[in-house]
User: Which sequence fits this backbone?
């Protein structure tokens, strides 16, 4: 009887341990966040992304600092459509299946990044009504009743402007998608990696007539998408390792980066610094950097114009100043007087492109 009780207790203890262990495993799988040894709160998908970037799980859980985490947060290894595409098509990040034929057509209107990360099924269906008009087509004749003259207005449905400098190049494109929609794409490429990599702004605006109380055009907020593309190379000449990262900006996940009115959108981006992985001395130096902002403009409720005028622009921050307190005049009573200097943040000269099309 004594041995029976002992064996029973041992079996029950073993069962209890197994149940608790399994429960812990389930809890660990279901847990969406954890706190590492440095006090950094990391979500499950962020952990997976850091591992994919190259960090070891051990380093993440023990040594990853808040500064390192914030520097890499949001960046992910860049995916290429070519690597996903099969003879039947591919599935984008939103679960939309795109055939090779649809991809060919979509590339007339959207960047590969937009197709891969932003395109929804509704957008795919809507895109079937899009027509690319790169040439000037259809001459419209308007009769002027006052002097009986005829004016020719070309229907220019596409425009592209590029402004290059030694340091960077901005390109803006605008084209008509269908009777009611227009696509704008602004891209900034760095020819030379900037010394100051702080917060930059990329934007586009449309002349809608809002200052006169009318609305010819409005920006479709749900269509907005931006990205920062980075190529970084290892300083270790033996490995010659090149890594490609993308930071996607969408209204769902990064609304705080967008400043939007009915006729303008500004996207703020923190430029990627050089970095190291797992605290190693080998640094990854940024070798290529580009930014992009895309969106759709639609005709507004007061639409009554023959043109669409769009400006695409970029602004690079070159210095950051914090408030400076100058302490002076300490009295015998211990009173302290402060003089505060508010110094503004400094940006370089903005780059602007101006485009105009004549919609049909």
Assistant:
């Amino acid at each position: 009887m004594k041995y029976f009780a002992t064996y029973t207790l041992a079996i029950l203890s073993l069962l209890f341990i197994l149940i608790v262990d399994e429960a812990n495993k389930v809890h660990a799988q279901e847990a969406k966040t954890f706190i590492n040894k440095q006090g950094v709160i990391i979500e499950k998908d962020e952990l997976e992304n850091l591992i994919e970037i190259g960090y070891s799980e051990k380093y993440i859980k023990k040594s990853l600092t808040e500064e390192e985490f914030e520097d890499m947060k949001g960046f992910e290894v860049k995916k290429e459509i070519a690597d996903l595409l099969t003879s039947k098509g591919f599935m984008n990040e939103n679960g939309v299946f795109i055939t090779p034929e649809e991809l060919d057509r979509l590339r007339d209107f959207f960047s590969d990044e937009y197709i891969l990360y932003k395109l929804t099924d509704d957008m795919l269906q809507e895109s079937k009504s899009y027509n690319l008009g790169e040439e000037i087509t259809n001459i419209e004749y308007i009769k002027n009743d006052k002097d009986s003259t005829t004016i020719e207005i070309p229907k220019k449905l596409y425009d592209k402007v590029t402004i290059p400098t030694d340091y960077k190049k901005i390109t803006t494109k605008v084209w008509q998608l269908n009777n009611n929609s227009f696509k704008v794409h602004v891209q900034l490429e760095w020819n030379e990696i900037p010394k100051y990599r702080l917060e930059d702004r990329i934007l586009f605006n449309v002349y809608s007539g809002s200052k006169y109380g009318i609305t010819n055009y409005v920006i479709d907020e749900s269509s907005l998408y931006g990205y920062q593309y980075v190529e970084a190379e290892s300083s270790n000449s033996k490995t010659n390792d090149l890594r490609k990262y993308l930071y996607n900006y969408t209204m769902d996940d990064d609304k705080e980066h967008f400043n939007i009115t009915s006729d303008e959108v500004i996207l703020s981006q923190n430029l990627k610094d050089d970095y190291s992985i797992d605290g190693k001395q080998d640094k990854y130096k940024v070798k290529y950097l580009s930014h992009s902002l895309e969106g759709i403009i639609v005709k507004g409720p007061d639409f009554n114009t023959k043109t669409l005028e769009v400006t695409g622009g970029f602004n690079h921050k070159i210095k950051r100043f914090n408030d400076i307190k100058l302490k002076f005049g300490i009295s015998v009573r211990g009173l302290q007087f402060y003089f505060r200097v508010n110094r503004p943040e400094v940006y370089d000269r903005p780059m602007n492109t101006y485009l105009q099309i004549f919609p049909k």
Q: What stands out?
A: The longest helix spans residues 2-30. The chain has a mean pLDDT of 80. The longest strand covers residues 217-234.
